[in-house]
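Colleagues,

For the teaching module next term, I've prepared a clean inverse folding example: a structure given as tokens, and then the sequence designed for it. I'd like students to try predicting residues themselves before seeing the answer, so please don't circulate the second half yet.
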């Protein structure tokens, strides 16, 4: 075989599989244009009014459906002073919280943190964490990567027609890829 033909054959073998890559991998989000979500609005679901661990309002800004499950961004308006999440674990998601208004108390593993306007906190997957709202009102931006089932968790909690029991809360967490491992975080 001539050297030129050999190089062309090798090049063809290397490049051909690239053309077989599904479009979903190349165009990760499946979208071909951006979009805007106005302040005070939620994408897809409108305002999600939570029940259970707190009675806050959640707006989906970027849905996991928008990013092929890669990312979700929520804005939470906190209306439940002294309440928060039970200590729980996400096996497959990292979370980032950014405080827009108010003050919060977080636990990540064995460490505890006070957060106020402008502060951020990273909650790695597989590490127990919880938070409690300290101020009368507050607002946080929550980034979840990958999106997982957290959006579904919020929709399920908002659809309840009653305040769930601890057993119901634990089941809803488990159904959405989270595990409750302890009580809510008390404010020290």
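(Answer key — instructors only)
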């Amino acid at each position: 075989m001539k050297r030129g033909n050999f190089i062309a054959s090798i090049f063809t073998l290397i490049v051909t599989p690239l053309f077989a890559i599904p479009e979903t991998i190349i165009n990760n989000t499946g979208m071909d244009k951006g979009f805007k979500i106005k302040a005070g609005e939620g994408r897809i679901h409108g305002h999600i009014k939570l029940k259970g661990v707190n009675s806050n309002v959640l707006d989906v800004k970027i849905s996991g459906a928008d990013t092929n499950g890669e990312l979700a961004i929520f804005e939470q308006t906190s209306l439940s002073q002294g309440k928060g999440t039970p200590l729980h674990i996400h096996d497959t998601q990292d979370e980032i919280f950014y405080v827009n208004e108010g003050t919060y108390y977080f636990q990540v593993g064995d460490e505890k943190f006070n957060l106020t306007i402008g502060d951020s906190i990273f909650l790695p997957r597989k590490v127990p964490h919880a938070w409690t709202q300290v101020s009368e009102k507050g607002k946080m931006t929550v980034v979840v990567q990958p999106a997982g089932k957290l959006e579904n968790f919020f929709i399920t909690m908002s659809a309840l027609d009653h305040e769930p029991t601890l057993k119901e809360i634990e089941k809803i967490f488990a159904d959405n890829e989270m595990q409750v491992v302890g009580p809510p975080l008390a404010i020290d």
